[in-house]
């Protein structure tokens, strides 16, 4: 699996959100510990979240394909049997 990476701007935004969460819910946290925490979550939990997203996308796609097959079936016309 390809490593999950964020742009510099994305990482700064995520670190900011982590720090805001800690300020609100726990004890204040610095930027460096917040980056380490982000790296930990991306490495350890990221694959689970990523795989869940893939499974959800696959289920949605399969549902659409089933719906499309049903729509095609509804468009079919009655075939007349030809006499020999």
From TrEMBL:
Q: Which Pfam families match?
A: DUF2164
> What is the native source organism of this protein?
Rhizobium leguminosarum
The molecule here is called DUF2164 domain-containing protein
């Amino acid at each position: 699996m390809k490593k999950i990476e964020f742009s510099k701007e994305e990482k700064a935004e995520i670190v900011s959100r982590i720090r805001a969460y800690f300020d609100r819910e726990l004890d204040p946290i610095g930027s460096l510990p917040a980056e380490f925490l982000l790296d930990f979550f991306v490495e350890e939990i990221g694959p689970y979240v990523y795989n869940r997203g893939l499974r959800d996308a696959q289920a949605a796609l399969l549902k659409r394909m089933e719906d499309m097959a049903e729509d095609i079936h509804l468009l079919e016309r009655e075939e007349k049997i030809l006499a020999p």
